[in-house]
Amino acid sequence: MRRIRITVSYDGTEFHGWQVQPGLPTIQSELQRVIGEIEGRPVEVAGSGRTDAGVHALAQVAAFSIENPIPLDNLRRAMNRLLPRSIRVTCVEETDPEFHPRFAAKAKNYQYRIWRAEICPPMQRLYVCHHPYPLNEARMAEYAPVFEGEHDFSAFAASDEKDALGATKVRRIFESVVRREGDELVYQVRGSGFLKHMVRMIAGTLIEVGKGNLDRDALLERLRPGYPGKSGPAMRACGLRLVSVEYEP
Hints:
- It is a single chain.
- The longest helix is centred in the last third of the chain and has 14 residues, at about 200-210.
- The chain is an alpha+beta fold.
- It has helices spanning about 25-40, 70-80, 135-145, 200-210, 215-220, and strands at about 1-10, 45, 55-65, 85-95, 105-115, 130, 150, 170-180, 185-190, 240-245.
- The protein folds into two domains: about 1-95, Pseudouridine synthase I, catalytic domain, N-terminal subdomain (Alpha-Beta Plaits); about 105-245, Pseudouridine synthase I, catalytic domain, C-terminal subdomain (Alpha-Beta Plaits, 2-Layer Sandwich).
- It starts with a strand and ends with a strand.
- The protein contains five helices and ten strands; from the N terminus they run E-H-E-E-H-E-E-E-H-E-E-E-H-H-E.
């Protein structure tokens, strides 16, 4: 049995997120369909984490086990031939039999991209959130690092089916920055892991900072364990992309 690790890039516009959902198109279900066709039996594909409906990925990592002796380059070509054009496998390699892309991940990098000009080009509309209204971008950049470090992000997480298990919502953020790139305002965040809608809710909170509605103390209060409400609002999914997943060499 071979353990195969793949890097996947996808346009999430037409999909209901990563995870398999009965009767709905998802990234995981498409990958399992084509790999199962190549292998001749059902194959489970594990991902480094879930992305929500409409969220994109530049380099999602996934893994599966097959018996087929097909060479790696041929496997990549076969998968891309069978997948919809909105999903591309960019790298295929053999890995340790015990490798799991979620449990082995050391960090994940996300970007939330906001188009700031008055007119959003039609070719960009599916990959950015258009917000042409006044914002104090310098203030957003100043406050973005408040999220760095280890915090309870319960106020920045949407309800999840795992909530009943009582899992911790403490996460460590290694980097949290806001910067300008031409007509785009980019929120870049790197962390040990992320909760459901967490990046979108942080981005929405930073928008409130830019509007002048929140100060540093208000951000710190939302990171306090036991904070009674939710922060945000969660920004539109189309502006979010998973940039990369990091592993030990």
